From TrEMBL:
Membrane topology: Multi-pass membrane protein
Protein name: Membrane-bound ClpP-class protease
Lineage, uppermost ranks: Bacteria, Pseudomonadati, Pseudomonadota, Gammaproteobacteria, Oceanospirillales
UniProt keyword Kinase present: no
Species of provenance: Alcanivorax xiamenensis
Signal peptide: 1-26
C-alpha cells in the first residue's frame, strides 16, 4: 500500500505527457481548410546547423509532414552539416521523396558545407541551392565501414587476380557500392550529375558552389534566403511526376523552431548522455536489489535504464561493447559481494573501459562518447574497487567483533540487588552474572570473565 501513491504519481505524469504531446490546435479539417484558403500558403524555413542524427531526423520529418498537411508553398532547409548517421539521413530522404510540397535545400550562409550525408540530401531535394563560398561532397560512407581503406585494384602489387578479398574488404565494397547506387538513383531522379556523385562516394571528392553549378550538381547559387525566394519565383519543378510552378509572391516566411521533443531527443541521443544514463540505470538497480529500501534507487534506475535503452536503439551501437560494459559492472558488483582481492574488480574495470570505447559503432566524431567521460567513469570504478579491497583487507585484520567472547571488558548494569548470582543488562541482552561482592540495582559493573552462560563481573567504579 505504501507504493500506491507513487504508482498514481507515475500514471498522472504519463497522462500529462500524453496531453502535452497532443497538437495544440484541435480545429476540424473544414476549419483548417477555410483558414488555409483565407491566406496564401506560407514558406517554411528550417535551419539545420548540426550533425544529422535521430533528433534532427525526427524534427525534419515531422516538420515536413506538417508542411504537407497545411499545403505550404515551399519548404526550405538551410543546411550546414559535417554529415551524420546513415539511417537518420535515409529517413529524411524518404520523407523528402514522399513530399507533396516542394523542398529546397540551401547550403548557407557562406562558409557552410553539405558534407557526407548532406550531399545525399542535396541530391534528393527538388531544388538544390548553395551560397557563395560553400562546398559539398566527401560522401564516402564511414559509419558502417569503420574507416577501412579502399581496396586495391585486382592484380596490383603482384596480387593474384583470383584471390578472394578478405571479409573487411568485401564488406567495404558492399557499403560503397550500395552508397553509389543510392546517390546515383537520387541524381537520375532529379536530373543532376550522377558521375560526379559517384566520385564523391568512391573518391571523397568535394566541390565549391561555383563548380557545383557548372557541373550540374546544384540548380542555383543564392546569397541568402530573400535572394533564394526571389530566384525561385516562377521556377518549374517536378513533384511525383507532375510539373509544378512555384508561386511565392505574397507568401509569409515562417521559421520552424525546435520543440520540446526535439530538444529531449537531442539530449538523450548524445552518446555521452546515453552512456551515463545506462550506468545510472544499472547501478541504481544493483543498489536497490542489494539493499531494498524506499525504492528511490530502483525507480530512478529503472527510468534511466529505459531512457538509455531507447536512446541506444536510435544510435549505432556495438552490442559487443554493450555486453562488455554489462560484464564489467557485474564483475565489480561480484567483487563487492564475493571478495577476490581485486581479481574480479580489476578485470571488471578493464572490461568496462574496453566496452565503453567500443560502444558507439561509428567513426563520426559527433556520435562518439567523449573520452574524458570514459576516463572519469573508468577512474571512478577503479577507485571503487580499491576502496572495496581496502575495506575487505581491514576487516580481515580486525579482531573478532561478534560472539560471547567479545563481552570481556565491557560494561554491564545490574537490574536487581544480589550478593552472588543475579541478572545484568549488557548490549541490549540479559545475562546471568556472578560477583564476589554484593551488588545494588543500577550499579555499573565490568565483565572480567565468562563461564558458560554466566558472566563474572566486578564493580566498575
Amino acid at each position: 500500500m505504501a507504493r500506491k501513491p507513487l504508482f498514481l504519481i507515475l500514471l498522472l505524469a504519463l497522462a500529462m505527457a500524453v496531453l502535452i504531446a497532443l497538437p495544440v490546435s484541435a480545429q476540424s479539417p473544414s476549419a483548417q481548410h477555410s483558414a488555409a484558403s483565407a491566406s496564401p500558403p506560407d514558406v517554411r524555413v528550417m535551419v539545420l546547423d548540426d550533425a544529422i542524427g535521430p533528433a534532427v531526423s525526427d524534427w525534419f520529418v515531422r516538420a515536413l509532414e506538417d508542411a504537407n498537411d497545411e499545403a505550404a508553398a515551399l519548404f526550405v532547409l538551410q543546411l550546414n552539416t559535417p554529415g551524420g548517421l546513415d539511417h537518420s539521413m535515409r529517413a529524411m530522404i524518404r520523407a523528402l521523396l514522399d513530399s507533396r510540397v516542394p523542398v529546397a535545400i540551401h547550403v548557407a550562409p557562406s562558409g557552410s558545407r553539405a558534407a557526407s550525408a548532406g550531399t545525399y540530401l542535396l541530391y534528393a531535394a527538388h531544388i538544390a541551392a548553395m551560397a557563395p563560398a560553400t562546398n559539398l561532397g566527401a560522401a564516402t560512407p564511414v559509419e558502417l565501414g569503420g574507416g577501412a581503406p579502399a581496396p586495391k585494384p585486382a592484380g596490383s602489387d603482384g596480387e593474384d587476380q583470383n584471390t578472394a578479398p578478405d571479409s573487411a574488404t568485401a564488406l567495404r565494397n558492399k557499403q560503397v557500392n550500395d552508397a553509389v547506387a543510392y546517390i546515383r538513383g537520387l541524381a537520375e531522379l532529379r536530373g543532376r550529375n550522377a558521375d560526379w556523385a559517384e566520385q564523391a562516394v568512391r573518391q571523397g571528392a568535394s566541390l565549391p558552389a561555383e563548380e557545383a553549378l557548372e557541373q550540374n550538381v546544384i540548380d542555383l547559387i543564392a546569397d541568402d534566403l530573400p535572394a533564394l525566394l526571389s530566384r525561385l519565383e516562377g521556377w518549374e519543378i517536378e513533384i511525383r511526376g507532375q510539373r509544378h510552378t512555384l508561386t511565392l509572391s505574397g507568401s509569409q516566411v515562417r521559421n520552424i523552431e525546435q520543440d520540446w521533443r526535439t530538444g529531449f531527443l537531442a539530449i538523450i541521443t548524445n552518446p555521452s548522455v546515453a552512456y551515463l544514463l545506462l550506468l545510472v540505470g544499472i547501478y541504481g538497480l544493483i543498489l536497490e536489489f542489494s539493499s531494498p529500501g524506499v525504492g528511490v534507487a530502483g525507480v530512478l534506475g529503472g527510468i534511466c535504464l529505459l531512457v538509455a535503452a531507447y536512446a541506444l536503439h536510435l544510435l549505432p551501437v556495438s552490442y559487443v561493447g554493450l555486453a562488455l560494459i554489462v560484464l564489467g559492472i557485474g564483475l565489480i558488483a561480484a567483487e563487492a559481494l564475493s571478495p577476490s582481492f581485486g581479481v574480479l574488480g580489476i578485470g571488471g574495470v578493464a572490461a568496462f573501459v574496453i566496452g565503453s570505447v567500443m560502444l558507439m559503432d561509428t567513426e563520426l566524431p559527433a556520435f562518439q562518447i567523449a573520452l574524458p567521460v570514459i576516463a572519469a567513469v573508468g577512474t571512478g570504478s577503479l577507485l571503487l574497487v580499491g576502496v572495496i579491497i581496502r575495506l575487505i583487507t581491514r576487516s580481515r585484520r580486525q579482531a573478532l567483533v561478534s560472539g560471547a567472547d567479545t563481552l570481556l571488558g565491557q560494561s554491564a548494569v545490574a537490574i536487581q540487588d544480589f550478593e552472588m548470582l543475579g541478572m545484568v543488562h549488557i548490549n541490549g541482552e540479559l545475562w546471568r552474572a556472578r560477583t564476589a561482592t554484593p551488588v545494588r540495582k543500577g550499579q555499573r559493573l565490568r565483565v572480567i570473565g565468562r563461564n558458560g552462560l554466566t558472566l563474572n563481573v566486578e564493580d566498575a567504579s
